[in-house]
Amino acid sequence: MNVMVKWAKKKGVVMKTTSHRKLFYSLVILVFLLGSLSLAKATGLLIPAQSGPLVKDKTISLDSLTVEQKIAQMVVVSGSLSNLKTWKKMQLGGVHLFAMAREDLFRDKIVQFQEGMTIPFFVTLDLEGCQNPFAAFHNFTAASEVTTEGAAFEKGSDEGKYLSSLGVTINFAPVVDLQDTIWNCRSYPGSAQQITDLSEAYVLGLQKENIIATAKHYPGKTLVVQDPHKFLVAADISLDDIYPYSQLKSSVKAVMVSHIIASGVVDSRGIPSVVSPEVINAVRSHYDGLIITDEINMLGLKNFYKTDDEMYLAVFKAGSDLILDFNENPNEIYHLIQVVSKAVERGEISEQRIDDSVRRILLAKGFRLE
Amino acid sequence: MVTVRAWVMINVSLCCISILLVLYLFGVHLPSLGQAVAIFDKTEPLCLVEWKNEFTSWTDLDQCCLEARKQLSCDAEDILINKERVSRVCETGKSSVRFHLNERAYSYCRSQPIW
User: Fold this and answer.
1) Which of A255, A290, A328, B10 is the most buried (most CB within 10 A)?
2) Structural domain total, chain A
3) What is the ipTM of this complex?
4) Does the pTM of the predicted model rise above 0.90?
5) A222 lies in which domain range?
C-alpha cells in the first residue's frame, strides 16, 4: 500500500514538473518574441521607410511627394546617432546638433546623416549669445561683448565660414530679445536700435557664408525673469520688442516663434504664440522666410492641450514651416507625422497649407520647384 | 532537480515580463523607479544659469532642461550657490554658459522626452 502511495505521489510530482517545464518553454518563446518586437519598436525598426522622392537636376515636384513625406520635411529632430537610420528612412526635414567634444565628431555625424539623402537634412544648431556647442575645442565671442557693426559682421562671417565648413545649414541666431536678465549674454547690448543694427550686421555676415540665420524669439521678452509660476510664461509686448523683426524681415531668412503668451501689440489670445494663428499670420503677412517653432516638448505648451495629438495639430494648424521636436523616441515622431497626415486626409488641415511650408523648405534647401 | 515551487516562481516571473512587454508594445508607459522616487521628493527644483561667475535663477524649468541637454556633459557637483545646494553642472567648455541644477531639477530633466 505504502509503495503505491509513494509511487502515486512521485508520479504526481513528475507530471506537475513536466507541465511546468512545458509552460516554461512556451513562456521563454513568448518573452523572446515580445522582447524582439519591443527592441524593434524601441529602435524604430517597425517604422516603415518612405519611398525615394523624385528629384532631377535639383528640380522637384511637390506632387511627387506623399503627404507624409511633406509633413516629415517640416520636422526637425535631435540629431542623435542612435536614431540615425530611423531619421533617414523617415526623410525628416532636419537634425539639430547638441555639443560634442571634438570637431571631427561634428563632421562625421553630419556626413553620416547626409549620406544617400535625396533631400538633405537641414543641419541646425545654436551658436548664439554665449551658447557655443563647440566650446570644448573652439571659442567664439559672446554676442553681449560685441559693440560695433563691423565686429558683429565679422563675427557672423567667421561663424558662417566655420559652420559652412562643417556642413551646418541653419544657425538659430541671433537672439534679438531686447532684455536678457536671465543669461545676461544672449542678446547684443544697447537700445532696440543698436540691438537691431548689430543683429543685422551679424545676419549679413552669417548668410554671406550660406548659413541661414534665425531671428529669435518672436515676439520677444523670453529672457526676462518670470514670476515663480513654472511652465507658464506671459508677457506684455511693446512696439520696441518687435522692432528688430520689422527691420530684419528683408534680410534674415528665418524667424523663431516662442511659447510665450503674448499680449499688447502682439496678442496670442491667451495661448502660446507658437500655436496662435493670429501671431503666425501677423509674421507671415510681411515675411516670406522660414517660420520655425521653438522646441515643442514644453509643459508651457503641452499643458494647454489634453493630449499631445491635439498639441501637434495646433502647432501645424498655426502655420509654422519647421517644427522643432527633440523627442528622442522615434515612434513618437512617427506618430506626430501620422496624426498630422490623417488631419490632412480628413481636411482638418489643408494640403495647400502644408505645401506652402514645404515649398519654402525645399527652396531654402536649394531645390527648384516644378 | 528543480522543485515545483521554483518552476512556479520562474513561470510567474516570465508571465510578468510578458505583460510588461505587451504593455510597452501597446504604448502603455509605466513610471520608472526614478520617476516614482521623484514624486516623493518635495524639494523645489532649482536651475541656475552661470555666465562669468554671475548666477541667475531660471524658473522656466523646461527651457532650462532643454538648454542643459544641449551641453556636452552634466557632471556631479555638490556646492552651495546663493545659499542653494546644487548637485549637477551642465557645460560644454569654460568659455560657454553653464547650468547648475539641484537633484530634483536634474531628475525632472532626465525624465523628459528630450533627454
Assistant:
1) A255
2) 1
3) 0.86
4) no
5) 54-369
Strand, helix or coil at A298?
Answer: coil
Helices (H), A100-213: 103-114, 149-166, 192-208
pLDDT digits (tens, 9 = 90+) for B19-36: 999 998 887 877 666 666
Domain membership of residue A19 (yes or no) is no
Q: What is the CATH number of the domain that holds A161?
A: 3.20.20.300
Residue A100 lies in a domain: yes
Query: Do B72 and A226 lie within an 8 Å CB cutoff?
Result: no
First to last CA, chain B: 47
Q: Which three cell numbers stand for residue A368?
A: 527648384
Q: Cα separations (Å) of A136 from A170, B57, B70?
A: 21, 25, 13
> What are the residue boundaries of the structural domains of chain B, listed by start?
4-30, 34-110
What's the pLDDT tens digit per position in A44-69?
888 888 887 888 889 999 999 999 99
- The shortest CB-CB distance from A182 to any of B7, B21, B56 is to B56
Give the amino acid at A162.
Y
Residue of A nearest to B57 (CA): A182
Please, what is the end-to-end C-alpha distance for chain A in angstroms? 95
